[in-house]
Structure formats: C-alpha cells, structure tokens
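User: Can you recover a sequence for this backbone? Please restate the input before giving your answer.

Assistant: Of course. Working from this structure:
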C-alpha cells in the first residue's frame, strides 16, 4: 500500500468518525478547515485545535478581544515573582495573566488567560446552550494565542508572508536569517507602560507589536536599545 492509499483510507475513517461525533451546530470555518487538511482530524475537538493552531494570528485577536470583555480583576497589578508570591511570572517577557494567579483565578469553566467562560470543545461561545465546561480552564484559541505570545519566532514564516517578505525597518527584502522582533521592546513595556490597562497591555505581545527584520537591522536595533537602557539605569 502506497502512502497516498494509506492517507486516503485513514482520511475516510477519520471523516466517518468526525461526522458521527459532529455536534449541531458546528462552526463552519472549522469544519471547512478540517475537510481541507492533508490528514482529516477524527474528532471535533481535534478539528478545533487544528484550526486555531493553523491560524494563530486570529487566535491572538480573539484572545485579546475576550480579555477586553471583562478587563483585569479589581485590585490586580502587573507584578513579578517574589518569595512571598511564587505564582507570579519570573520575567517581564512572560505576558501578564491575572487569571493565572491564585488570588484571581476563576476556577474550572473559565479561561485562565482571558477570564471568559469556556464552553464545549474549548469554544468561546455557547453554541450548544450547555453552559460552561467545568472540566476546562483554557479556550482552544487562547492556547494558540499564549503560544504565539511566548514564542513568536515559531510563526516567523507566517509573519514574513504578512509583511510581503519585506523588512519592517529598512524595507529591503527579508533574508533567510531574518528574525522576529518586538517593535517596542518588552523591557520598555515593563518600564514605561506597566500601568496600561491589561487588555491593551496584551497587544505588546501580540501581532500589533511583532515584526520581522533582517538580522543586521535587528543587531543594530538591539544595540541601540541596550545603550538606551544603560543610560536610563545610570540616570536613575
């Protein structure tokens, strides 16, 4: 049996399983994505997971929009880890996430990233009128967004395509050695924008603050940022 024959047989079996388990209604964009994959996902949950992993920029926009629905919980401020509060992030490079902190966590049925209810299959809307899923603490979209925020370099190909393969700083053609960069460096976000409202703050980790630039331009930008940082420390 050739690989093509094996894939055809596997996809037929997966499609049968998917159709049998498919709830009504089901997001049309996700179903279309599942049916056009090289390997058909066999369950609705895997179909949704595949959709958001393939579209991380959509997941980023959705996660920030969901966070804006309720905003940060009352009394929350962006802080880093100390001996007394071990559940805080160790570095300002980690996106602020108030609902991941023990003091503000909303518990099962609510997403630990955006704070909104999590419904069946990790979806963000209650399409099936069954209420929050008490076994879930993540939206599937928020998982993809969180991965983008923490490891944007993994989406370099997608970001290059979005920029039409042009360097953001020089306008020259992007080389294979080009790198993903934050337009506003994260140390400056921590230093100058710490008091920004939380949903807006997330934009510094998302698409609005991401760019792809050639390595030489990145090196020059990093050197200028390091010099500025040393001057600010010396002045302080």
């Amino acid at each position: 049996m050739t690989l093509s024959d094996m894939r055809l047989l596997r996809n037929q079996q997966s499609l049968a399983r998917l159709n049998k388990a498919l709830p009504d209604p089901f997001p049309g964009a996700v179903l279309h994505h599942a049916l056009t994959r090289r390997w058909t996902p066999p369950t609705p949950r895997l179909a949704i997971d595949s959709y958001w992993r393939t579209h991380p920029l959509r997941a980023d926009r959705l996660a920030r929009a969901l966070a804006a629905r309720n905003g940060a919980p009352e009394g929350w401020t962006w802080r880093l880890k100390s001996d007394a509060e071990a559940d805080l992030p160790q570095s300002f490079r980690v996106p602020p996430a108030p609902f991941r902190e023990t003091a503000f966590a909303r518990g099962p049925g609510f997403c630990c990233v955006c704070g909104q209810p999590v419904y069946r299959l990790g979806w963000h809307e209650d399409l099936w009128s069954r209420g929050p899923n008490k076994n879930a603490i993540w939206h599937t979209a928020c998982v993809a967004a969180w991965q983008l925020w923490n490891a944007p370099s993994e989406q370099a190909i997608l970001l290059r395509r979005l920029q039409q393969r042009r360097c953001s700083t020089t306008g020259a053609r992007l080389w294979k050695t080009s790198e993903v960069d934050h337009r506003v460096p994260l140390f400056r976000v921590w230093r100058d924008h710490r008091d920004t409202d939380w949903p807006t703050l997330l934009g510094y980790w998302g698409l609005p603050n991401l760019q792809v630039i050639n390595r030489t331009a990145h090196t020059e930008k990093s050197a200028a940022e390091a010099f500025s940082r040393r001057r600010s420390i010396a002045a302080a």
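That completes the design. The mean pLDDT is 92.
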